[in-house]
Q: What sequence folds into this?
């Protein structure tokens, strides 16, 4: 090891918590928190204001944070640029987008793609009908697995320990149709695996029905789920099962066969 | 100042460079670099391997980086989730998407939204025709301002010092149609401002023509530009000027009048 490396290693060793603190500050941006004051950043990250200020200044100089006219901080464009290279979302997004677009144009229903992260789902991409815009998932947002068709598909194909964890945890009842009984959920999930799709009728609010199907990746595992959302009153959810399933299969096919993709998709 | 704050301030003071180094490591992810080995991260960030390894471990524990099966690192889903809250891209994206979707469905041409960042453009959102997918801008990617219609619109409305910097810098000639003469570019940009749109005929490759118009934000300044891309052979570019302009105006109108937006847009 050279002197420079020893020097570098020593510095990083003593400062382990500083990287953690910088990340803790970035991590306070979640849910609806898009702009935060220095004192909010300090309080929510548990870092004293003086320390937080120094770290925030470094983050701002680089462009990970930006300062609003009113002095509050927001996530910066440069961090967004770097993060747009995250392969788990980007790869799927780029492959799935044209298929999702075709499904949206054909049905004019909101189309969503999500992956499972731990015991929640993360919305990766969506095409949304302007009149269905309220209260729909935000790209990059996290949601419970047990209450929507897309979540049920991801939960049905999750490893056994994840399924146990979710079933043993708090199962929020969004409407009287939300299934919150663990034993019944076990049956629902077996059904989803057996049928190859999930249908959730007014389980998040009383207006909408969602239909979802699994996207199978190159290694044969379920890497994502695709859903359509329709008004309950239209009664068309059963008609959407086939379109969602074939589109999810087409996305899986494109993921498994890079020859189907345009060259830049995996660049 | 409490003892805890003094302690915190002291630590942050001595470790200024550690946050910078962590950011330098993240910053090596750009362009086509989606997966990098530890030694690549070290070399490209200029940080000794031993130090880089310790920082990378902190970043991985938090989820800013993820490790591939082959040992290479990629941007992690958690960083992507946090960064999806960047207001400059997110706000515009959410407002513009339904309008861009309508424009795509009406024309079936690739639709792109971009903002200016310094002397380059950053692609914020796009709807892309599957057959035009090759070599088209990547969302989150940076591109030169002088060579496309969308870049010319952003450059035409940039502050004078930015325009001077771009005109004095290297102007890459992509095709024989790319304008690389500073004096001629000055005239082109004046024309873009006066007409309210830009048309770039085969300036990036010999197959495509792009048409772009400015999006005016709440303070009356140009905050973004919108473009359509068509095959040169179709000869339909002039017919697309009106659709692009009215759509760019509609997006500006939505940005200026929050009453037109669904409630979650600015949340």
A:
């Amino acid at each position: 090891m050279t002197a420079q490396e020893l020097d570098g290693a020593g510095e990083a060793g003593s400062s382990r918590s500083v990287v953690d603190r910088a990340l803790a500050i970035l991590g306070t941006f979640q849910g609806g928190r898009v702009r935060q004051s220095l004192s909010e950043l300090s309080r929510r990250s548990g870092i004293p204001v003086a320390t937080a200020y120094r770290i925030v200044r470094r983050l701002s100089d680089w462009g990970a944070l930006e300062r609003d006219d009113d002095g509050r901080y927001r996530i910066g464009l440069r961090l967004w640029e770097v993060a747009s290279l995250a392969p788990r979302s980007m790869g799927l997004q780029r492959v799935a987008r044209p298929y999702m677009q075709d499904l949206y144009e054909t049905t004019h229903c909101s189309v969503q793609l999500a992956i499972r992260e731990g015991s929640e789902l993360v919305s990766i991409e969506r095409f949304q009908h302007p009149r269905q815009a309220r209260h729909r998932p935000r790209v990059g947002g996290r949601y419970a697995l047990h209450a929507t068709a897309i979540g049920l598909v991801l939960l049905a194909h999750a490893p056994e320990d994840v399924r146990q964890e979710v079933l043993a945890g708090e199962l929020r009842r969004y409407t009287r149709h939300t299934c919150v009984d663990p034993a019944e959920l076990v049956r629902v999930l077996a059904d989803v695996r057996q049928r190859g799709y999930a249908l959730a009728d007014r389980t998040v609010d009383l207006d909408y029905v969602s239909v979802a199907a699994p996207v199978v990746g190159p290694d044969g595992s379920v890497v994502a789920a695709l859903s359509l959302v329709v008004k309950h009153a239209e009664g068309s959810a059963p008609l959407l099962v086939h379109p969602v399933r074939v589109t999810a299969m087409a996305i899986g096919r494109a993921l498994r066969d890079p020859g189907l993709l345009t060259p830049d998709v995996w660049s």
Remarks:
- The longest strand of chain B covers residues 222-231.
